[in-house]
Amino acid sequence: MTPAGPGASSTSPETPGALRDQSRPDAVFKWLTAACSLVVIIIMAGILFELVRNSGAAIREFGFGFLTSDSWNPVIGEFGAASSVYGTLVSTGIAMIIAVPLSIVIAVYLVEVAHPKVSAFIGGAVELLAAIPSIIYGMWGLFVFAALMQTRVQPFLGKYLGGLPLFQGPPMGIGMLTAGFILALMVLPFITAVTRDVLMMVPPVLKESAHGVGSTMWESVRFVSLKYGRRGIVGAVFLGFGRALGETMAVTFVIGNSHRISASLFSAGNTIASSLANEFNEASEPIYLSSLFALALVLFGITLAFQTIAHHWVSRMQRLEAGDR
Amino acid sequence: MRPRSRAQRRAADMAIRIAMVPSALVGIAVLAWILWEVIARGVGALTPAFFIELPTPPGMEGGGLGNAIVGTLLMTLSAALLGTPIGLLAGVFLSEFGPSSRIATVVRFTTNLLMGTPSIIIGIFVYSILVLPFGHFSGWAGAVALAILILPVVMRTTEDMLNLVPDELRESGLALGAPRWRVTLGIVFRAARTGLVTGVLLAVARVSGETAPLLFTALNSFYWPGSLNEPTANLTVTIFNYAMSPYSDWQQKAWGASLLITVSVLVVAVLARFVIRDKRGKA
């Protein structure tokens, strides 16, 4: 058999498979996998394009006033995003105020204080919470939790904090506060899991040094561990915020679908996602549908902005810290 | 840092410790509560008729959600068939050719963006490309929307799992003269197959419980899914519709469907995580 030199492209039957020139199939392979990975980019570009295209009519009709107008009148065809944006931000804000401190305390407990078996058990329970589909949170929220809010929690808050405009009004069970609570429950597992992972990566040497100079457990967590992991934790909080902004089914069940902006947390409201879920299939007029597309575009823009900020924060911190070490 | 007395510092530490146990219990308590309510309220609805029969007209008792179960299975399966191959190959690109390529960085960033995009927006996107132009809702549109949700997750887990395979394995294959594609598909895939399969299973299970992407694509239906070219019954949108209805029979069926979905998703999630954790420990 004549020895084949490098690069010889003989594909005759005598050439063993290993010597056949595979540069062509390999090139096809690389091209194919590259094409598949470009699909994501095509999809994202497609989403942006379609949202802009379909909201064109509403944007032409209302201009930038769309963002500040709180009217929502399908009858006369006047729409504005303000009540939806307000509801989205407030419900998510409530969720984060509740979930972030709670998550950090739980994560610190799991990493620093709890017995390893307890930690594994509770950690597992928190992960299961994350796996529950959001419509189940909606069902539970509407039929179980809202009833509790109406009969116990809201009257309690109204009685003792009713002086504040936040807690005035009839206890309906559903509304902004309930939606905020349910969102907090949905965001909690994610932030807890990331914070726990971040805390577990703190080198024991750092923690032991802190204890060596006499710090308490909380002091070592606060001044050493949390500082070490703040990049990951802040990134997780941003991402959790971004996810809560777009959460649909759980919120739609309990927020009450009202397009009025009210100072009270007991009142009904709506988020962009809940309005889309409730009204998209009912939109009879073209301007109605186009306004809903414009709402979707606003939500898309907000979540994109949050994720990009989170991404840049994490990579900026990475570069800064790399310089320190 | 203000100088504080030892007592103050100890008090702060104790305060946090006292806050910890109830906080941790919140997680377990809520999980247990939700599972309890779903089981207690849903189990009564899971009669044999529930699985086999069609829904009765509104207000009439009886009937079942057999069509919704079939519809969900059909659409989830179609979505898996659509999204998984693309996701696997894309994950291969990111892992095998990635580190040296700038395109890979952009793709990875975009994948994260897509994962964080609200699923209702993906539903609206598919509505505008697959429902509006054709003038009707369809199970295919629903499957595509679910596939778009599956894609980035499979890409991410595939990349992670392939990165776990040591380079020595690849180099041995290449040293023996195998071409790049053979090394990847025949050797690396085989080494990572447990992780890859569980990653796909996790993504598919998560997607089977999604509602928002189906609201404007597959819609819902009272009939058996004849073809995917028409509005297709499915469990999640049914839960949404039934729960909001005034009929207690429908509300109970919504709980039954919720129980069904919760059990399937949690069982797959628990199994998959069990297997992945095992695998990571060995690798």
Which features characterize this protein?
heterodimer, A: 325 residues, mainly alpha, two-stranded antiparallel ribbon, 12 helices, 2 strands, 73% helix, flat, B: 283 residues, 11 helices, globular
Main interface pair? A-B, 85 and 88 residues
Strand portion of chain B:
under 5%
Residue share in β-strands of chain A: under 5%
Please write the string of helix (H) and strand (E) elements of chain A: HHEEHHHHHHHHHH
Q: Indicate the percent of residues in helices of chain A.
A: over 70%
Report the major sheet of chain B: none
Mean pLDDT score of chain B: 89
Q: Which structural class is indicated by helix and strand composition of chain B?
A: mainly alpha
Helix/strand/pairing class of chain A, anyone? mainly alpha
Instruction: List the uncertain runs of chain A.
Output: 1-5
Order of helices and strands of chain B: HHHHHHHHHHH
Helix count from the secondary structure assignment of chain B: 11
Distance between the termini of chain B: 44 Å
Distance between the termini of chain A: 59 Å
